Amino acid sequence: MRLPGRYSGTARPIVTYGSDPVLHRSCAPVTEFGKELRHLVLDMFASMEAADGVGLAANQIGVDARVFVIDCPDAAGEDVVGYVVNPRLTVLEPHEGEPAEEVTEEGCLSVPGPYAELPRAFRARVDGVDAAGSPVSIEATGMASRCLQHEVDHLDGTVYVDKLPEEQRERLLAEAAGPGGDLPA
To answer: Catalytic: which of 106, 117, 151, 166?
Structure first.
């Protein structure tokens, strides 16, 4: 269960689609570990919570760094909470009785409002390091697996709408911008 006020960082504004080139290019690997990186991670958790999200990549708050945070339920409804620096994504083979992939609705804090169905692997793992440079791994199923894949896509410069057919993408971006929408023209 998500706990309001759980994160002690400072919420930062979310970068929206088309408003900042950092959202559309591969992020730089993190090479410096320590206090500044720990503060970034705390700010990312606070930003994700303030925006009512379940995951957030550093470039979504304008930071060019390969870092993401997650607080998302897995297929069993258990919260997967954590962060990974310099993540490497591995799509895993399903366990017995699991589907290889799921097609469910996906949304994004950087494209506020609309959702679209998108296929993603049911089971995935991300390996990387923590803020001290120690190895860390997150393996997840269901929505949390989708979240891992979505956030690594962000760090590679891909927003989920970029994976959709052009007509559908343009419709969703127009919906997000809508009358009084949050996206730039």
So the answer is: 151
